[in-house]
Amino acid sequence: MKIAGVILAGGLSRRMGGNEKSLLELAGKQPISWVADALAPQVSQLAVNANGDPARFDFLGLPVIADTVEGFVGPLAGVLAGMRWANGLQGITHLASAAADTPFLPSNLVQKLEHATGADDDIAMAHSLDRIHPVFGLWPIALADELEHFLVAEDKRKILEFANRHTLHSVNFDEPGTDPFFNINTPQDLAQAEEMAKAQHS
Q1: N or C: which end of the chain has fewer CB within 10 A?
Q2: What is the pLDDT of residues 59-101, one digit of tens each?
Q3: What is the 3-state secondary structure (H, E, C) of 96-122?
């Protein structure tokens, strides 16, 4: 298994008043920088999925790939764009996906997801605090055509509906006293993340 990674940064940030949450400042750098720093060592190559002007992510030094399906249809469009990009890379078999607003991403995310999968078309997703986190997944890139059909021909959006057509492995990442998939949706979340970042470095 050879794995590429994609950071999903296509959200509309409605609860942040339109400010792009992955580009706000958190403890001296942007949330998406925290995600990139955590995910890059876990994959062979890494890209950002985002629509609009890609130049706003130049500081990351990563390729920026836009959705291949029109209409802002949600995270699965970003997964599909990542699959299409990864398909053009040498030897990549799987794509690991992660959200751009989760600065405390586990350093062993990809390793644990990979160990959970069996057959070539298995999908693995992270789980913590009694819930699954569908955007943190490991996807066979061979499913790209099927995923595009799901999004376009079937006009469907739900990540778990697609994943459950295959063998889906839920991988536990519970950690005492914290949620490794804490995400920033509101100004209050950003303030809480600041406190969490300080605690990490104290």
Answers
A1: C
A2: 999 999 999 998 778 899 999 999 999 999 999 999 999 999 9
A3: EEEECCCCCCCCCHHHHHHHHCCCCCC
116, two tokens: 């959970």
For the domain covering 3-200, report its CATH number: 3.90.550.10
At residue 18, the pLDDT reads 56
Residue 91: which H helix or E strand, with range?
A: none
Which helix (H) or strand (E) element contains residue 190?
A: helix 187-200
CA distance 130 to 172: 9
**pTM for the predicted model, two decimal places:** 0.92
Q: Which long-range contacts (CB under 8 A, 24 or more apart) does 183-187 make?
A: 183/99, 183/101, 183/102, 184/16, 184/21, 184/24, 184/26, 184/31, 184/101, 184/102, 184/103, 185/15, 185/16, 185/21, 185/101, 186/15, 186/16, 187/16
Q: 182: which 2 tokens?
A: 């804490």
Local structure of residue 61 (DSSP, 8 states): T
CA angle at residue 88 from 121 to 169, to 5 degrees? 20
16, pLDDT greater than 80: no
Which among 125, 121, 180, 107 has a CA at the least distance from the CA of 1?
121
